[in-house]
Design brief:
Layout: H1 11-22, E1 30-31, E2 34-41, H2 47-57, E3 60-65, H3 71-81, E4 88-92, H4 93-100, H5 124-129, E5 147-152, H6 153-160, H7 165-171, H8 175-187, H9 222-236, H10 248-252, E6 258-262, E7 265-269, E8 273-277, H11 278-288, E9 296-299, E10 310-314, H12 321-333, H13 335-345, H14 352-358, H15 372-381, H16 392-407, H17 413-427
Parallel strand pairs: 2-3, 2-4
Antiparallel strand pairs: 1-2, 4-10, 5-8, 5-9, 6-7
Helix pairs in contact: 9-16, 16-17
Length: about 425
């Protein structure tokens, strides 16, 4: 998934598809004598692959791009009614687990798709994410989106005596290590992170568990509770630039000093590192750190994590399922296409038959010539499958709000946790929360 800050709904394509679905119950089958395949997505990632698919198969593909905020509400009625429904649609990590169990995607484990036969060819967590509660494959992804800690080499050399990713990663292989580095950064006038939320990805620790277990119980591990204290310590010890994620100052800090008001005084400071996934390199850092290009590197934090991703599957009632799955296969299993795609975009693939062949060939000049491809593939293999639930997006938001209440001194830790439990119960009455 590429993080998109502006998305465009192709009104014409949407209207055309709806009208086609309403015209006597028959969908338009051809365009200029070519068979028409309809795809809905929340991102423009598929534009170039669609061109290649059209050329290869002699068909016409209509792509409808809907802003991510509106995507589920616009797509669901079409899928339920079949009116104007696409033959293929994508799913984003935030709502993926709800959709694989909703029955909208065809069962790709069955004939003629037989997606179960390619299980061992994929990064385990990526393949697992596309399965429903019964273990059937409903969606596949071409990419893996593990994360790391991107840092400025020049600052690392000044403060830590080295800019080598492996050495920096060894320094930060625990939260205690992260704070030791943060203290050194502070001593030289730098900020470790833009904000406290930067470390939320490490809140799971090395033994991650799902927010809700198979007994419908809310699981708040000691690692998640400890995250509250770590975030508080970052604020108390002034290790961050107080630049919230996606804010103007958050972006600005990637390329220049930012102003921070502390102890009644305003000072300028540079931010040492950003915690971002694979797509953060191309869609965030490279877009906002033009002056510092070449001065960056990426390394591991205290624990592996992933952020985002795009899955796609075939609509269960599509009349063109074979053609639709041909596109899915091209995106997720075609070795020639995926090899070219990886080299053109830098997208880190989930399909091992390709990554095993190409992973040693990558160097990114933005990262000082580092092979980030091998690094991210190694991180992806360490991610625990099966920990994502349909509750995650909402619970992450609620927990983050409670953590900030504690960080800002508005509530004690116990009060913040109690408030979190209360909000979870209100949002999900079926989930059992701690007493």
């Amino acid at each position: 998934m590429k993080k998109k800050f502006v998305s465009v709904l192709t009104i014409g394509a949407l209207t055309a598809s709806v009208l086609a679905g309403c015209s006597g119950g028959e969908e338009e089958k051809t365009s200029g004598g070519k068979e028409v395949l309809k795809i809905w997505s929340f991102t423009d990632e598929l534009k170039e692959p669609i061109k290649k698919f059209e050329e290869k198969n002699g068909v016409k593909v209509e792509l409808t791009i809907v802003p991510i905020a509106d995507y589920p509400t616009k797509l669901k009625p079409a899928l339920e009614s079949g009116v104007g429904a696409p033959d293929i649609f994508t799913g984003e990590i935030a709502f993926l687990k709800q959709w694989v169990d909703a029955g909208y995607w065809a069962n790709l484990s069955e004939k003629p798709f037989n997606a179960g036969e390619v299980k061992d060819d994929y990064i385990p967590y990526v393949y697992d994410m596309g399965k429903d509660k019964d273990g059937n494959v409903r969606a596949l992804s071409w990419q893996t989106t593990p994360g790391g800690v991107y840092y400025k080499r020049s600052i690392a050399k000044k403060v830590l005596g080295t800019d080598d990713p492996k050495e920096i990663g060894a320094m930060m292989n625990s939260m205690d290590g992260v704070f030791e580095v943060a203290e050194k950064m502070k001593g030289k006038g730098y900020k470790m992170f833009p904000d406290e939320g930067s470390i939320r990805w490490f809140a799971q620790g090395n033994e991650p568990q799902a927010w809700v277990n198979d007994k419908q119980e809310l699981v708040v591990t000691e690692d998640k509770k400890n995250y509250m204290d770590y975030a508080k310590e970052l604020r108390t010890k002034q290790y961050t630039a107080l630049a919230p994620e996606w804010s103007p100052s958050w972006f600005a800090g990637m390329d220049k000093p930012v102003k921070v008001k502390e102890n009644g005084k305003e000072t300028e400071t540079e931010i040492f590192s950003y915690v971002l996934p694979t797509w953060g390199l191309h869609s965030v850092l490279k877009e906002n750190a033009k002056k510092s290009a070449g001065d960056w590197a990426v390394t591991s934090g205290p624990s592996p994590y992933f952020w985002g991703g795009t899955w796609l599957g075939v609509y269960k009632d599509s009349k063109k399922q074979k053609l639709a799955y041909d596109f899915v296969k091209m995106m997720t299993q075609d070795e020639e296409f995926l090899t070219d795609w990886a080299k053109e975009t830098g997208d880190v693939l989930a399909y091992k038959p390709v990554t095993d062949k190409i992973k040693t060939d990558f160097k990114d000049e933005f990262l000082g010539g580092q092979n980030n491809y091998e690094f991210f593939l190694d991180q992806a293999d360490k991610i625990t499958p099966g920990i994502v639930t349909k509750y995650d997006q909402q619970l992450d938001t609620l927990y983050g709000a409670s953590v900030m209440e504690y960080v800002q001194g508005k509530k004690s830790k116990d009060e913040a946790l109690a408030e979190f439990y209360k909000k979870v119960k209100n949002a999900y009455p079926d989930v059992k929360v701690p007493e």
